[in-house]
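4.2 Preliminary Data

To establish feasibility before requesting continued support, the project team ran the inverse folding procedure on a target of 860 residues. The structure was first converted into the token representation described in Section 3, and no sequence information of any kind was made available to the design step. The complete token record follows.
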């Protein structure tokens, strides 16, 4: 379906017209009945909203495992990216840096419990967060084709706490909650605030990062608050590269203008990264309140891409692998008789045939004239993210619904990604080509409307039984906007074999552009029954109806039992689903990637495209899951310990297929369908429901507090064992991708943290353990190896000058632990290291090494 009006204007009108709010957060959380108050262990003061529609409860009394990370803990780190902050705090949360990974470098996908980023539902103040417009076409196997929310836009200074529900929760929250739920709670103070400035760089002397952030709480009349936060950040690019072997050989042969680092592996440059969050609440009466929150965020990102060799790059310099030079006849009737120039050594520019037939012949042209040393495109984008939630919640005081809590809300979220590719060419335009292009834009627009009810009913049990029910309406629209005409046009040299469109990322043609929408509604019921003071049981049932693929019904049963005052056991059984995104069902794209170490152009097609259907594609269906957890919570003195086992079976998982080689007949069909630059394409892929997995693991969390060393000490240990097995797949998925799904992430992850507080000084140190993982470079199976386990250490010391001013210094990876180094350059079965890297890009702690920083904070 197509929206008839501008998407953003419609979204804002929808949000402003919706005078209510409250997705997935029961009204019973406003003021719990005294009989429903949960027992809170004196040593456990962390209270969670997520995971229940009854009163908020301590994480020790939750029937499902929940991690809570406080805002101060998030801010006490040298990192400025929310993804990295969470990786240090939640061992089952993994994120890669993804150098040279197209859009995945702009919005990095993350993994909770070994599942892709779009298997974790993200909430803000309990409301569903919209997903990013970026689809991770090069997602490192695990995230190939994933389209999750952009967590990186959320600044730590705006956060009161983060709640991570490590349990399948689709029956409670709907699609995407297979791995779990992450709920970001915004600060809600009506006074005070903080201003913070930090600066740091990597030990290598690059990646300079400066961040200015602030938070202020203001009264909103006498009965409300307005809490505002901002963050502004810039980060320079990093490089952990060596010169490519082919580029070094060209320089040695005398080829001019070859960059000293022809291909850069590292973090991209981030410029003008600004984000603003607001959170407003107002008490309307003693039994009702209004709330509103949202954000505006924008950043520019630019990173490296693959080097174009001036003697081998197809569609630009040669179409036969470097045997002969690609030469254009510029005469209207192609009468110049341009010579065939064999490439016989490392410098074709010295060949007399080239000098006489091309360089000194105005009727013949080769890109070696204007770009003799080849070129390296840079890939980048402008990412904009906005959201707004407005609503009301409270308690009915009379009538049939007396003492029933309600929450009524409207939410709108929009994420836009406009792509840019720099320092490249549209070869079909010849010498007239621009060097910089905007290939187009993706937009992801989501609207939600929710109405929730919750009431405690006395059935003569230990406490009231909480009965909740609700309704949700959701609309999702994915928009493709065409790029600059020069980024997709077929220029005059097309028929002579020169590539069409901006090399590396051809622009979206007007025929590819369009708006694709889907609507769904859901109804749910949720019951939590405290049969005794020691035994709690909950049941959830959710029905959803999608206008694309039909209906789905999911359930969840959870329970907790106190064996003793100090020990309780808990568990859950649930079914779940993840609906394919509208983007996954409709997007098409041409990308440049490596296949078996060779640079190839491949096309991603919608799964219903005739070529995709011919190769095994079908219309996407929802993923379906079955999961269960079993765990225990133990407290003794100042020690708090949880241990949980989980098992998640996912059928018909959605991912990008393996890249499939094209026949000439396939290319002819694609050309007739309007796919650009078909003759330059070697492969195609598409999204497919093509494999099943079983993921199991153990989470161990322990906390201990004591008075030591003349101050207050806190010890925290968190450990995760995670194992994924692909239980069914076809050749469309590919054996190497299966291996990546099973082995790229470490099976073992742990963190041990010591926090110490004295009167005027505080400090913390964290040891991060990463078990063995599969080292992979350039998505090439011949590079794969089992990489060694490693430990990194983070530390920070803060001095409080007075009650308002403090200064901090610290470092991440303080001992500069290197990632696993590449060791395949001299293998007989692989070409020389022609990609310029030093480290395996799948390193779970990145490839950039140690980072140190200083920070000044003013609190008021």
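Position-by-position output of the design step:
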């Amino acid at each position: 379906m197509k929206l008839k009006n501008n998407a953003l204007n419609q979204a804002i009108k929808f949000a402003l017209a919706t005078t209510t709010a409250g997705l997935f957060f029961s009204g019973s959380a406003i003021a719990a009945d005294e009989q429903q108050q949960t027992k809170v262990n004196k040593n456990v003061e962390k209270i969670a909203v997520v995971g229940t529609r009854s009163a908020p409860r301590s994480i020790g009394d939750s029937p499902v495992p929940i991690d809570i990370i406080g805002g101060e803990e998030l801010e006490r780190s040298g990192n400025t990216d929310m993804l990295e902050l969470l990786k240090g705090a939640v061992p089952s949360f993994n994120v890669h840096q993804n150098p040279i990974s197209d859009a995945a470098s702009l919005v990095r996908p993350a993994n909770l419990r070994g599942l892709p980023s779009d298997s974790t539902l993200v909430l803000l103040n309990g409301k569903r967060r919209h997903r990013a417009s970026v689809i991770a076409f090069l997602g490192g196997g695990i995230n190939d084709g994933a389209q999750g929310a952009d967590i990186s836009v959320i600044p730590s200074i705006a956060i009161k706490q983060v709640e991570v529900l490590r349990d399948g929760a689709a029956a409670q929250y709907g699609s995407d909650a297979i791995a779990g739920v992450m709920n970001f709670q915004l600060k809600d103070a009506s006074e005070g605030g903080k201003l913070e400035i930090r600066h740091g760089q990597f030990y290598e002397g690059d990646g300079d990062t400066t961040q200015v952030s602030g938070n202020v709480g203001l009264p909103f009349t006498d009965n409300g608050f307005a809490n505002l936060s901002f963050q502004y950040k810039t980060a320079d690019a990093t490089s952990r590269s060596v010169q490519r072997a082919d580029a070094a050989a060209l320089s040695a042969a005398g080829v001019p203008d070859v960059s000293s680092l022809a291909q850069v592996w590292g973090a991209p440059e981030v410029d003008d990264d600004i984000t603003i969050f607001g959170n407003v609440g107002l008490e309307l009466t003693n039994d009702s309140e209004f709330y509103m929150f949202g954000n505006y965020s924008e950043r520019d990102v630019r990173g490296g891409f693959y080097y174009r060799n001036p003697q081998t790059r197809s569609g630009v310099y040669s179409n036969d692998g470097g045997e002969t030079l690609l030469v254009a006849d510029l005469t209207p009737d192609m009468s110049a008789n341009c010579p065939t120039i064999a490439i016989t050594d490392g410098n074709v520019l010295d060949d007399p045939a080239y000098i006489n037939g091309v360089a000194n012949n105005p009727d013949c042209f080769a890109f070696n004239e204007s770009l003799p040393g080849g070129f390296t495109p840079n890939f980048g984008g402008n990412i904009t993210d906005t959201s707004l939630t407005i609503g009301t919640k409270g308690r009915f005081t009379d009538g049939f619904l007396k003492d029933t809590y309600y929450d009524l809300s409207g939410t709108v979220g929009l994420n836009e990604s406009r792509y840019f590719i720099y320092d490249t060419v549209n070869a079909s335009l010849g010498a007239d080509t621009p060097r910089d292009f905007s290939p187009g834009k993706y937009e992801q627009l989501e609207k939600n409307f929710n109405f929730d009810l919750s009431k405690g009913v006395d059935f003569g049990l230990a406490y009231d039984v909480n009965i909740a029910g609700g309704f949700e309406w959701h609309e999702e629209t994915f928009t493709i906007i065409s790029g600059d005409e020069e980024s997709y046009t077929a220029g005059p040299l097309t028929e002579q074999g020169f590539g069409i469109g901006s090399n590396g990322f051809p622009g979206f043609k007007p025929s590819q552009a369009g708006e694709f929408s889907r609507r769904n509604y859901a109804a749910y019921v949720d019951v939590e029954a405290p049969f005794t003071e020691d035994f709690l049981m909950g049941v959830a049932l959710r029905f959803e109806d999608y206008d694309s693929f039909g209906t789905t019904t999911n359930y969840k049963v959870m329970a907790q039992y106190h064996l003793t005052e100090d020990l309780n056991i808990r568990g859950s059984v649930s079914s779940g689903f993840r609906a394919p995104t509208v983007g996954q069902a409709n997007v098409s794209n041409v990308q440049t990637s490596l296949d078996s170490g060779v640079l190839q152009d491949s096309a991603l097609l919608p799964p219903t495209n005739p070529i995709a259907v011919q190769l095994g594609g079908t219309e996407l269906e929802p993923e379906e899951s079955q999961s269960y957890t079993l765990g225990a919570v133990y407290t003794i003195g100042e020690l708090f310990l949880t241990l949980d086992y989980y098992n998640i079976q996912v059928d018909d998982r959605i991912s990008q297929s393996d890249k499939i080689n094209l026949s000439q007949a396939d290319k002819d069909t694609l050309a007739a369908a309007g796919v650009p630059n078909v003759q330059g394409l070697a492969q195609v892929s598409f999204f497919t429901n093509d494999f099943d997995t079983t993921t199991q693991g153990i989470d161990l969390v322990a906390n201990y507090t004591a008075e030591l060393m003349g101050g207050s000490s806190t010890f925290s240990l968190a450990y995760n064992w995670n194992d994924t097995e692909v239980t069914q797949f076809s050749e469309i998925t590919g054996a190497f991708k299966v291996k990546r799904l099973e082995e790229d992430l470490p099976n073992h992850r742990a963190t041990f943290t010591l926090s110490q507080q004295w009167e005027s000084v505080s400090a913390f140190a964290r040891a991060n353990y990463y078990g063995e993982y599969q080292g992979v470079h350039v998505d090439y199976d011949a590079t794969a190896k089992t990489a060694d386990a490693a430990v990194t250490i983070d530390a920070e010391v803060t001095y409080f000058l007075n009650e308002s001013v403090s200064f901090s210094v610290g470092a991440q990876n303080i001992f500069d632990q290197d990632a696993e180094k590449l060791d395949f350059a001299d293998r007989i079965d692989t070409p020389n290291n022609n990609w310029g890297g030093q480290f395996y890009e799948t390193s779970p702690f990145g490839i950039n090494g140690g980072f140190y920083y200083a920070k000044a904070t003013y609190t008021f």
